[in-house]
Design brief:
heterodimer; A: 590 residues; Rossmann fold; FAD/NAD(P)-binding domain; five-stranded parallel β-sheet; B: 162 residues; alpha/beta; four-stranded parallel β-sheet; 4 strands; globular
Chain lengths: 590, 162
């Protein structure tokens, strides 16, 4: 019944990502010596059309029934190559991937010989497993045509409306009493100088009146469980709790402004503000009806300093003790800062404006044009360096309440500026809820604390969990146009499985061999998903049985069974054992 | 208990331990991937076997891994409370405690077996764990069950002691 394995091994150079360190030709040559390998080749990019075509041609020509690709992480391209073998009529579980990039060339980049040896080992391990791979039956699950959108800022609102407009019901959950998020707190958005309320109000009205949207304000997710297509959550809105069911999730939890307490004397004087606080001050419905006055004196400012990169692009030397440096660029602050200085000029035309910056990064459509305009306003530019931050001091009894001193690398001079107002262009940090949401949804965060996309280039809207998508600044700093684009994309992604009504889920589940099962029930105690139950057999025997739809495929039951009656498909004992044996053996036979 | 079996032959090569890492797909394998994406360098002594959850790890498999000559075994999974399968990592931990006893009885230094929680965002930490393990095992020396010297050949498998 079992056919002899015919394995094709395809080694990827990944441009120079792998080939620049690992001797790919040598590994490909070596693979031909491994048992059951009938063809082994290298290619520049195995994931490219050409690389995929090579695999397909070889499946035909060499009648391959197993395929091993040694390239990047299976977390990245396993779905790609599984599709390739499926297109040739093979079962997707006869594919095995060895990770020569993330686990070899990128981490041993200065040890080409050792890296090549390790690559051979990993290929030998993958071939050893491939020899024992089996075709598995396809499992489909129904997808409920409702979505949950977490976060009611511009990203969440956009995504919710986009999904609802396609005819699917949306549960939109916002933790504050109002929709609009951080955007609603801004005075203007740039480079267009739009009033954010003018943009948000029609959208919010549309959301509130939309027949397909259920809005929840001052609400939180008390509990959530499930998997793509079949999620269930308890939403707590003030004192009420409601249970809802849905198929997909969009995470649009947004950002928080960086808190600069402990830096630049922030918090020690009322006239030292973050840019968000200044915006709130300039709003028509703000505390001064939009008049720009200094908070301490209530007078129009005569001299103002704006400081960039506060809480962004930090390094170990300049970050306050005990804080972890935010090494990333927050992307919106440069344009925000120069545009805000232009707004200040409008409101206080006699004021002297000093812009203290490290580098001005005004990228994006219309941003560089705005920068050219800004240069005509006569503001003084002072360029500080990343190891010498400007200092803000509170003066006693002087004409101006504050004083900013900085080294200016353009003139090579140390400058001292007496000012009424200091504005800190603070960057973005992840929202407080991020880690809680991450653990509830089993999605991951990158080192900066923002949610991690499945792939930075090829899957920027997917989280690591099927059916959970990322939108807006929850994934990383971005401006309104980028947040909206990403939200529309995430909405489209969330609609795809709902429109299909069914998705294929992993067939890698546990199966119990009834002949070996003694009915002890240990496996049931080990299953976190209550996916194993007893069944009575006519001969009076009691056996355990796996409910396939509930099994998540962790394999914990299998390792707990005292009778070895449970097999974890695709990660069978024999398959793992063969990999380990191959790893520790130098002979090709494994 | 002390390792008594001395089967390593005199050689000029420096001892390069072979470590097998069983990493869960969701946290630690992703963490090892992040080490790569971040270009964090660590010694090339580890061979990673991906499992969906550390809870899947059968103690027999770990014992076999030592029997086949691994100088060290790393089990790495999600942090407490972060398991993709709710509590698979806790079950792995229970087995690990038992395994520690078992390997000692096999005549294996228990330091060769290590369990760590490494999240998907801890690429740097994963590299650190591997570095530490390699250093520690270099100090202890080769496993009594096998010889894995760079450029060398594996000796015949000794019979397991248990």
């Amino acid at each position: 019944m079992e056919e002899e394995p015919r394995i094709g091994v395809f080694i990827c150079n990944c441009g120079i990502n792998i080939g620049g360190v690992v001797n790919v030709e040598e590994v490909a040559e070596y693979a031909t010596t491994l048992p059951n390998v009938v063809v082994s080749r290298s290619s520049l990019y195995t994931c490219s059309d050409r690389g995929q075509g090579m695999i397909k041609d070889d499946i035909d020509e060499f009648k391959l029934n197993r395929v091993v690709v040694a390239s990047c992480s299976p977390r990245m391209h396993e779905p790609t190559f599984r599709k390739v073998v499926e297109e040739k009529g093979l079962n997707k579980y006869v594919f095995e991937q060895a990770n020569l990039r993330e686990h070899v060339s990128w981490v041993h980049s200065k040890q080409p010989e050792e890296a090549t040896e390790k690559a051979k080992d990993l290929v030998r391990m993958a071939v050893a497993k491939a020899r024992l791979l089996e075709s598995l039956p396809q499992h489909l699950v129904d997808v409920k045509g409702e979505a949950l959108v977490i976060g009611g800022g511009i990203s969440g609102l956009t995504a919710a409306k986009s999904i609802a407009d396609r005819g699917f019901k949306v549960h939109l959950v916002e933790k504050t009493p109002n929709f609009g998020g951080k955007m609603a707190q801004l005075y203007k958005v740039y480079p267009t100088f739009d009033d954010p309320q003018e943009l948000l109000n029609p959208l919010v009205e549309n959301i509130m009146a939309h027949p397909n949207i259920v809005p929840y304000l001052s609400a939180e997710i008390a509990d959530i469980e499930g998997y793509i297509g079949n999620y269930r959550a308890i939403i707590r809105e003030q004192t009420e709790e409601k249970e809802i069911e849905f198929g997909t999730i969009i995470v649009a939890t947004g950002f928080n402004a960086y808190d600069p307490t402990g830096e630049f004397n922030y918090g020690k004087h009322q006239n030292i503000l973050t840019i968000l606080e200044l915006h709130q001050l300039m709003k028509a419905d703000g505390p001064t009806q939009g008049n720009l006055v200094t908070p301490a004196e209530g007078k129009p400012p005569r001299s103002i300093a704006l400081i960039s990169c506060v809480g962004s692009r930090q390094n170990e030397n300049t970050v306050p003790e005990g804080k972890k440096p935010n090494v990333y660029c927050s992307r919106v602050c440069c344009t925000g800062m120069i545009a805000t200085s232009m707004e200040i000029k409008e409101k206080a035309s006699d004021a002297d404006i000093f812009v203290l910056y490290r580098d001005l990064r005004t990228h994006g459509k219309g941003h560089e044009e705005l920068f050219s305009e800004f240069r005509q306003t006569g503001s003084t530019m002072i360029r500080y360096t990343d190891d010498l931050l400007p200092m803000v001091s509170i003066t006693q009894g002087a004409e101006y309440p504050l004083s900013v001193t900085s080294y200016d690398s353009l003139s090579g001079l140390n400058v001292e500026i007496p000012v009424d107002l200091v504005v800190l262009a603070t960057g973005m940090i992840p929202d407080d809820s991020a880690s809680n949401i991450a653990s509830k949804l089993h999605i991951t965060m990158s080192a900066d604390g923002f949610f991690q996309e499945l792939h930075p280039k090829l899957a920027p809207l997917d989280s690591v969990t099927d059916g959970v998508y990322l939108a807006g600044t929850a994934q990383g700093p971005k401006d309104v146009p980028d947040s909206v684009s990403q939200s529309l994309g995430a909405a489209a992604k969330a609609c795809a499985p709902m429109a299909l009504g069914q998705v294929e889920v992993e067939s890698t589940i546990s199966v119990i061999d009834e002949d070996f099962c003694t009915g002890c029930g240990v496996c049931q105690g080990s299953c976190e998903f209550s996916a194993i139950v007893f069944e009575e057999r006519p001969e009076g025997k009691r056996v355990s049985k796996v409910i396939e739809a509930l099994c998540k495929g962790c394999g914990t039951c299998g390792s707990s069974c005292p009778s070895a009656a449970i097999t974890m498909l695709h990660f069978k004992d024999a398959q793992l054992d063969a990999m380990v044996k191959a790893a520790l053996s130098r002979s090709p036979g494994g | 208990m002390v390792e008594t079996k001395e089967i390593i032959k005199e050689t000029e090569c420096e001892f390069e331990p072979k470590i097998i890492g069983f990493l869960c797909n969701w946290c630690s394998y992703a963490g090892a991937d992040l080490a790569g994406t971040s270009r964090v360098q660590y010694p090339p002594n580890i061979r990673i076997v991906r499992v969906m959850c550390t809870g899947r790890l059968d103690p027999q498999l770990i014992l076999n891994t030592f029997r086949y000559g691994a100088d060290g075994v790393l089990i790495a999974g999600c942090h407490e409370g972060d398991c993709h399968y709710i509590g698979g990592n806790y079950r792995a931990y229970r087995k690990y405690i038992l395994l520690k006893e078992f390997v000692k009885r096999m005549g294996i230094n228990e330091k060769r077996l290590r369990l760590e929680w490494v999240s998907a965002s801890e690429g740097e930490r994963f590299a650190k764990v591997v570095r530490e393990m390699v250093d520690n095992i270099k100090e202890i020396g080769p496993s009594p069950f096998g010889v894995t010297i760079t450029g060398g050949v594996v000796e015949d498998e000794p019979e397991p002691k248990i």
